[in-house]
């Protein structure tokens, strides 16, 4: 028990019973896993509990195992805490391969198409106008404005209900839920119940996670069913339309999709949770990095001035003419991936790779951090340098074979690839254009000395999804003309918010009236 069988991919030496569990890192595991790849190669194993966990740190192996053999690697490893959280329900992102996963995934794929995502660009742009308007007034709250915007976009598109301020009711509950999920599923945070099942039987008074699980489950159910009820009411009282919220579409076709009410509630809840802070983390990294790297920012501004100028705000299609911005977005995904280890997959059958056996049931982790920070693949990988994506399609060194790389790699692999990627691509496109167009970003200024202070590029949260912890930076409008246009665009966007604000509470509506017409 705990030892590595002959034929498994190599890995760190094991000890009896624990295998490698005692040396598995608790914090920023992707860093240690990348270190081990230097010693044990692009496909190695760590022994956790009774079976191997396979760590893939090579684009070729990721392609061969996760794309070409996706039908076999579509499973997720069992998670006792994950299963306890949902109880009798199902979470699309964590559920093992099953009829439940197939039905929910089919519904998600059919509503989250690129064509369908395009119908929601108007509210994404309107949200982005509020973002730049908020930054004009309270730039010191940038981190929070970015979080509000991404979450409000997710709520608007999925449920037709926006959150106009950080303190909005739905948003506060969603933040509590997302934070608690992050805390519970952070691999280092709790006793390893999946590796040592006996730990499941520790009484609740000594197992804090059990109390947290119960609290989370009741918070999630209250939120999911409240949001679902609003969709159901709208569907009863209105005709179907192409740009209606995604969950309304699912409610209308619930029987065709084979989903009952609980599955529908959990599909919506999982999408909104998976899609909210992930997008926010990306945008928070984008701002942090362009504030920290003035050369890249200068080139972004030059390009924006040439293509858009200062007499109008960017339009959606301008993005196609902004290659340096496109390269910067790819570099942010590479430099600070939101999901450095993706989500673990599992093998439904025995597999072989490079002569090694990957036995049925093994968990498989693709270490995106390790791939993206490998000096054999990228020149100077610890340098933030969008330029690399202008020199070659995937930013890789000239002698690296590009056929195993894909621009969707930050969104995972195979049949489990992130279904929200088209939606979030649009959010990122619209937000980054508006931010670069409107503002100059820089490091924070020390009040006592008047000098700039360095930004901490390593202060990131722990967990499956990671993003910068709250930080300060300076944000100034690029000119008074830019500031005037931001104000007028925000004012002209106000009617667009209307349909998404109908269900807001009276307190929220009063606050809005004061904010907009004072
Ligand atoms: C920058 C933003 C985002 C990033 C970087 C991201 C990344 C990922 C990754 C790496 C996975 C795991 C894929 C795999 O197992 O191979 C995933 C899964 C998933 N994502 Fe995203 N995601 C983002 C935004 C979104 C959005 C906006 C939504 C919903 C609207 C969403 C919904 C999901 C769901 C439901 C899954 C689980 C899919 C399954 O297990 O079948 N994500 N995402």
TrEMBL record:
Entry keyword annotation includes Heme: yes
Binding site for heme: 418
Keyword entries, A-Z: Heme, Iron, Membrane, Metal-binding, Monooxygenase, Oxidoreductase, Signal, Transmembrane, Transmembrane helix
GO MF annotations, alphabetized: heme binding; iron ion binding; monooxygenase activity; oxidoreductase activity, acting on paired donors, with incorporation or reduction of molecular oxygen
GO annotations of cellular component type: membrane
Keyword Protease attributed: no
Pathway this chain belongs to: Secondary metabolite biosynthesis
Cofactor(s) this protein cannot do without: heme
Subcellular location: Membrane
Similarity-based family: Belongs to the cytochrome P450 family.
Name used for this protein in its record: Cytochrome P450
